[in-house]
Specification:
Four copies of one chain form a homotetramer. In chain A, helix 1 crosses helix 3 and helix 2 runs parallel beside helix 15. The longest helix of chain A is centred in the middle third of the chain and has 24 residues, at 188-211. Chain A has 440 residues and is of the alpha/beta class. Chain A is built from 17 helices and 13 strands. In chain A, strands 7-6-8-9-12-11-10 form a seven-stranded mixed β-sheet. In chain A, strands 3-2-1-4-5-13 form a six-stranded mixed β-sheet, sandwiched between helices. Chains A and D meet through helix 7, helix 8, helix 10, helix 16 and helix 17 of A and helix 7, helix 8, helix 11, helix 17 and helix 18 of D.
Chain lengths: 440, 440, 440, 440
């Protein structure tokens, strides 16, 4: 889920499911604008000076109503924008239609930069990834220097997912990073807001839309107690579930305990719990041998990163397993030995995007305002040498500015430091107020 | 929302929207059965003896998946069942289709007993009620003794809503009650479960499906702090809203305060809040003059009883007001003076049924098991004179039994009283454990 | 914990620990007055007319700062007051001293009415009760008609504990009730406030003062999920404990589950939990054989009624057990087999009174305003025959008045019903607003 | 609140209030040991090798029961220890007595390093600081090279408060830091545990012990929403208060809002609120002109750093103000104009230490295990040049180890990464698991 800013023009073209949904899309976009004060402030502050004049921005990011507000903010600031979705279940067709009809072109765009030899399409366990490799391979067969040329034009990338950022740091570490990158994920107003408050909202939303099952009284296992896990565990607990956390990290585990949540292993609770959720960003968390031991109609879902947190491959290929689709994204898989079924949501992909509508506008406004600031910075500093082929984070004063742009909507009033107070704690009166290591 | 048990046969016939949805309906009914242990236990315990042999039960109750499980429980116990929905937005077409295809007939049935002179169809402010009166009037013109004959066959009624029960007690008080009635609403396992835990689940569900708006950070006004209001206020607060309660009753008001919630009047907060919810069971709570003062895109909804908690009539007839339907049940009403819009959900009717799928199966299993027990009692005691033309509540041991039937699903283990302990607190070892005035 | 109103005068005399603490007591009484708006309103409303002129009121109730405000309210209304404490650990010496110095006499008064044959002092397992019987016996040996004469003068009793009320109903049932009694315990503003909000405040207060142990992360077992148990479980959970409930009543058990709390038996968790609390109002809940199985330094305490909820006798007489008093009310009992100790608080008596200062003034103001209203009613109606030798509850309008008197202090504003709304729900505009069976 | 490790011996001597309290102190120390698994593990792991052989460790830190366990851990590892308290109200006399009787000497030790010209004792607004300067001045008059000689022997310092660390970074920045320092405050297991969970426990403890006032229903203003503010706001809200936050930092403000808490200025709410708490680490937060506007018996307290968060000087010198000491650390200050009083706790110093017993053992075990690890590192690496005259933080693997040592006590079980999973997220199987910028 990254934005890439580069230098040459794109045509206007689109591939969307149903252009007639544009009217509905536009209505929801207008509602979302009221909930996205950060992006709307960017339009007001930067729109007149057209800072993205000449910039082409390509996004690979869930094509939702909120993303539509981001796209139109970028175009309002002068950019030419191309977009492709990054998840097969997350596209909101009405939002895509409205964008396609009214503004920038939206088209599936290739995501990966690979050069030299052709990718080994079959040598990967993940089917989706094999498809990506196949597209890249086919492109390279037609035009062997394609990605090299793209690289030349590329000014920089801003990335907002934990997993994506991890890959960027790996590329930086092994010298394969070909462009400056801004890690937007680690802005406080992204990571602590989108991951925590966004999931707190959208996990129960997805669970309820998909299953209509009461959460109160149920035993729910949350695998992982990072920001996403914390948000989900809080939501489940507040809904009346008895939450159990699994963790590898002793610090996060101790946080769970201080929050009143037991920390056990999946094996300890697999046959007792009613709801299983992965939030880890890792793979192979819930395996088919776990699923076999679960209670009848246990719910299994993922809000971490990819569908490989759950062993979907193992489930699909389990001998004699039967799949009953209750409705799209809600499947009951019945094991032949016990005739017990488990209910897998969104085919193991992100439940909040597959079964609900993703994070709400307000938190996405925080995340996306970070994206806008990052893109503004990359584009403004192109050619100045300020950013090398490394991964950067946004300076804290911009992080604080993102927050500040969202306070008015909620009627908040900040206290102002006096100069004497600012001197006493050694910060500027106007901020930033915290040292870099501050954890919020 | 009442069940009526009487003595003569019905034919099999139905009016449903789309019979082809029966397959989907059946799948969801099967999932719901796993979540409704009370009803399924009734099937096991009473099914073999067919206690409803010869009984005809008519229900007027939201035609949802959960209601389908109730209907099929009644038929499993030997009853002939007819059903009509009681709310224009609450019918789940797939559930209705499955019931229509597979079991008892479902048909709109008249709800009211009125004799003598014809009703004054136009003398009522509520449009829906005028329709009911018109149907009754038309029926009486065709067959003037119709309701008298129905009354003869009628064994009794069980009723599960606060508003319905209030009407029954009024009829009892003024001598117009023509049959025995069991007030199921005041069973603890109904009133404290359905109203409280049901709304706690389904209010945020409705809000999110209808608007996708984040609740965290918002100011939400909950009108009324009875069981429904308590459940809704808890849900909103847990979702991160700042909740403000309005109340007429000082005891409920003090409860809100002890729960950390300010108690103010609607006038105090009408121009500041983001979400307004009525839960009162009374009328004329949010008037059009309130709505005019609200912030742009304030959300207005009702989870109390009828749509007259919100002044829909005043809104619809406000000069120059513009209605923009974002999607079904989500309307933006724009006032001409300010160009501000407010978002009204489910046209002022019950948000959880209009914008989501109503209460979840587990709590409805509690409510409906009370209904089954009440109907069993009425039918068994027909002709014995045990029940006069009065309103009764279920005995506490049945209330406790409803709860007991739902514990196993959640893995609970009860402690058993020793005889010495039972003697010490003067209760039977096997219950009931509490005096009648106990409030839970 | 009862108030008794009767007709002849008492002398002024007292037995308090240290009269020099009267200054400190007076300061705390003055602070408490600000937190007890119900009682202070009674002084304003009723003081001028001196309604208790001629009445002698005897109280048997924890002699705390809050009780001092009650006593002085009664005297302000014209009563002569005698007081005795009802628990060996609950007396606050400075409050007793202030009352002794400044107002009514305070003296240990006999609590029980028994006539005819002398009590069998040794035939009871409870040492404290044996002492009571001994005092009664000694009194009767000196003056055989003593209690008969007291009975003649007695106008009535108001009682505010669950256990006390249960005894009154037993006496009513078996015909041994010799006076009218008002059950103040079942006023909503007593039972749902004092028991629930009072314990929610004072349980963690007692635990922390006695042990300084963090509650977060601990496993806490709450025996009983009535109003006291609900308040305590909420307090423990909010402090970060993992709470487990034991229950005999399936309805209360299902409430616990809906609140996210597992329901198990003591046996299931006795060797895992860190904190054990009894709230049942029953006896023999935690036995010495349970205590033996507990973890080292497990905390055992009671906030129910008497110290027989915990098997203190079994513990004290356990062969080889060693008692180490860390500080008053905090004892470590070490079992010889394991050398493990358990920490018993307040010697098994009420932890909130033994280890902290009891309920806070604000909730006691609710409870005590009920007491004042009950005493006013009993005294006003003496000789009119309105009250027979039965147990009554206060009418709902007085319950609502108690609440109303406490709203202003918290800045609350009530909404007023319009006459049309009042008619619509069939209640008087000025209340009472709820039917008798309403549970809040 | 720092530990200093250096090289030459100390004599055994002490100044404690009452040595006879040593027995009680020892009992409480033994209870605390069970709650401090991190420190006890250090004794087991490091005790045999006596790593502090030859090291003299001086601590300036609240002399509590928990500190006693730290001191005895250091001596168990071979150190000679001297201690002085750092707050006039925080010393627990029984803990000090036990330490004095049984182990290392405890003596008031000077805290500041200053060289060259004598300090200007009167040129500082803070009376306590003036006392410190006076002692330093007097010492230098007697022995002008005293601090220079101390500096020579000094190996390093570990510091655990936000304020203390801030000063160290200032000294590093301006070149005046004379020794290596380890910032223990920014260990996750200190800052996010002690500040957050510790205050969440000890703030309500202090409030209740000092005032016995119910928190439910009250309006509480929390100045500052850092870790301490977050813990305190959570505690107050869970106790039923309506919490309002004041903040200067927009990010922390937005966090408060997402948690459902309004953000306003002190001026907005000063005349409405019941409880005021400072948590900022800054000065001049609540001034006397604020206090004058408060409601009668409003409670004012501080859990931040120094007593200058509250304008105690302004209050003390306010013309005509009257101070009534209800009990030690609980003063009612009455303003002459209104005759309204406010209740100031702990004379404006840390309420949890002044009015209660500070943080509970379990969180202090986390903080102090960080201290032990820091001291071990400083002493082991003395003379190796690994640490320059800079401020360091502990490496993440030690932070994770601190957490891991505390899991067993709470019955937690960690999940183990497989090598494939570890490779997938690019971390070692045994940790550390998170990048440095991770915020938890």
């Amino acid at each position: 889920m990254a934005l890439t800013v580069s230098k040459t023009p794109t045509g206007s073209e689109y591939k969307v499911k149903d252009i007639s949904q544009a009217v509905f899309g536009r209505l929801e976009i207008e509602l979302a604008e009221v909930e996205m004060p950060g992006l709307m402030s960017c339009r007001t502050e930067f729109g007149p000076s057209q800072p993205f004049k000449g910039a082409r921005i390509t996004g690979s990011l869930h094509m939702t109503v909120q993303t539509a507000v981001l796209i139109e903010t970028l175009t309002t600031l002068g950019a030419e924008v191309r977009w492709c979705s990054c998840n097969i279940f997350s596209t909101q067709d009405h939002a895509a239609a409205a964008i396609a009809r009214d503004s920038a072109g939206v088209k599936a765009e290739e995501e990966y930069e690979k050069s030299g030899k052709l990718p080994d399409v079959n040598g990967n366990e993940n089917e989706e990834y094999r498809t990506v490799l196949r597209i890249i391979k086919d492109g390279l067969l037609v035009d062997p220097t394609r990605y090299r040329r793209i690289k030349e034009r590329l000014v920089g990338v801003s990335e907002e997912t934990t997993t994506g950022v991890k890959r960027l740091y790996q590329m930086q570490a092994n010298g394969s990073l070909l462009f400056p990158a801004i890690n937007v994920n680690d802005s406080v107003t992204k990571k602590k807001f989108d991951n925590l408050y966004g999931c707190r909202h959208s996990l129960p939303d997805g669970l309820k839309r998909a299953t209509d099952v009461i959460i109160a009284g149920k035993i729910a296992v949350v695998c992982g107690y990072g920001d996403v896990g914390k948000g989900c565990a809080a939501a489940l607990k507040r809904a009346g579930a008895r939450v159990i956390v699994t963790e590898i990290d002793p610090i996060c585990a101790l946080q769970a305990l201080m929050d009143g949540t037991p920390v056990l292993t999946l094996e300890d609770v697999v046959s007792e719990a009613d709801i299983f959720l992965t939030t880890t960003g890792n793979k192979s968390i819930i395996m088919v041998h776990h699923m076999k031991q679960m209670k009848n109609n246990a719910i299994v879902c993922n809000i971490g990163h990819f569908d490989n947190e759950i062993d979907m491959h193992g489930l699909e290929t389990y001998p004699g397993v039967k799949r009953i689709t209750v409705k799209p994204q809600t499947d009951r898989w019945v094991f032949p030995e016990t005739n017990n079924g488990i209910i897998v949501l969104a085919e193991g992909r992100l439940i909040n995007l597959g079964c609900a509508t993703g994070h709400p506008s307000f938190v996405m406004s925080c995340s996306f305002t970070n994206q806008v600031f990052a893109q503004l910075e990359l584009w403004k500093e192109r050619g100045t040498g300020k950013y090398e082929k490394k991964v950067y984070v946004l300076p804290k004063h911009l992080d604080e500015k993102v927050a500040a742009l969202h306070l008015g909507k909620l009627g908040a009033k900040l206290t102002k430091l006096t100069p004497a107070q600012a001197a006493y704690i050694s910060v500027p009166v106007e901020g930033p107020y915290k040292p870099p290591q501050y954890r919020y």
